[in-house]
Amino acid sequence: MWAHDYWQLEEHGLSPPDIMTFAKKLQTAGYFAMPHMRPKEGYRIFNTWMGDPCKVLLFKAVVKTIKEENLLDRVKSCGVKLTMAQHGLQAATRAKDDGADEELIVCALLHDIGELFQPISHGELAASWLRPYISPQNYWVLEHHEIFQSHYYQHAMNMPKDVRDAFKDYPYFQACCDFCEKYDAPAFDPTYETLPLSYFEPMVHRVFAKPAYWHPDWKKDPICAAKLACASAYPTAE
């Protein structure tokens, strides 16, 4: 269905569009135009009926890249079958089924919440949003999970192997390994029985109802200590 048909322009007494654009697969596109909009010169405009030599060259380059980089097989090995929302729900369900505490379950639920805004730093976004209400360990796990998660798809990508090993000497290294292994990496299974968002909502409310920077270790961090000193200036949720 064309857009002007969907919007029922003519049924509402409006004129049909002068120009309609369309696009297809394989780098082709074009448009239809009313008679008064059509150019007089023949073959001045290419479309998918006449053919566009430039698009043929682009298409050849696309096919060449697909073959050289083995993209079809890579899609099969690392394709996503769930939405990001479903992935978060399944990660939280897996954490709950594993006996994780409420705070970690909420971290699992929201760990990828920043990916739609900034994929390359989505771990830091989630960690930043949750930081005042979670422990330093869970903050570190959220901040670094995208690096540790690459352990499970590095074989399918042109990237260095086991970049997470750079953090082996950090105290929360194993906690982040466990988070990705048990909750994040396997949470793309469309057959896994996943709990609905309504199940986790009370947990989210309770975590965010905690006093900001409640964990005693945050007082050892200069930035968190300064933020804690400013906390009284901000409104609180009622």
Task: Compile the SSE list and pairings.
Blueprint: H1 3-6, E1 19-23, E2 29-33, H2 53-68, H3 71-78, H4 84-97, H5 102-110, H6 122-130, H7 136-149, H8 173-184, H9 197-208, H10 222-230
Antiparallel strand pairs: 1-2
Helix pairs in contact: 4-5, 5-9, 6-7, 7-8
Overview of the structural elements:
With 238 residues, the protein is mainly alpha-helical. The chain has 2 domains: 3-50, no CATH class; 84-233, Hypothetical protein af1432 (Orthogonal Bundle). Helices cover 45% and strands 4% of the residues. It is built from 10 helices and 2 strands. The protein has helices at residues 3-6, 53-68, 71-78, 84-97, 102-110, 122-130, 136-149, 173-184, 197-208, 222-230; strands spanning 19-23, 29-33. The chain has a two-stranded antiparallel sheet. Strand 1 (19-23) and strand 2 form a beta hairpin. Helix 4 runs antiparallel to helix 5. The two termini are 48 Å apart. The model has no long low-confidence stretch (mean pLDDT 83).
Brief overview:
This protein has 238 residues and is mainly alpha-helical. It has 10 helices and 2 strands; from the N terminus they run αββααααααααα.
